Amino acid sequence: MSNEQELIEAAKEGSVAAFTDLVNAHRERLLRFLLTRCSSYADAEDALQDTLMSAYRYLPSYNPRWRFSTWLYRIALRNAAKIKPSNTADLTELSNTEDDLLTQCIAASERENLWLSARRLLTSEVYAAMWLRYVEDMSVNDISVVLERTASWTKVNLLRGRRALDAELNKDPVVRKLDDQESQVYG
Asked: What's the rounded mean pLDDT across residues 83-108?
């Protein structure tokens, strides 16, 4: 069976093989999405496991009006919100000196990484919308369904998110350094 709708119908009728095929088609992308929503890889795996169990349990309630992936991401988003963050080391605790080379390298790497900058600058929902649009290539309507927002909200916040990232990433490096120093002083 290769057609997703056929797999869904077979899974609804109890076919474990069909559900396994559905899971395998979406597992990697769901995990990648959950990694952006959770504090650790283990938490993302837990959320993924919960998502797949919920999908199996509630498969009879799936509405074919929506894409199956949209339905899965909506479940994943809810499960990620339920996961309490595990104890992870804070990179700022590695060193107390500003001249530490490791700290400087980490800070430089974070500034250069688009998605780390997005995570720092944007709200959780806007970050999720941007990830779903530009990494998962979801339509505005599908993102609206996943985030339970209107299409207008999604469009406006995608634009705002792009503008915020553009302003941050295209700043003069001297201004960026001053901003970083200011945020260290004022927290």
From this structure: 54
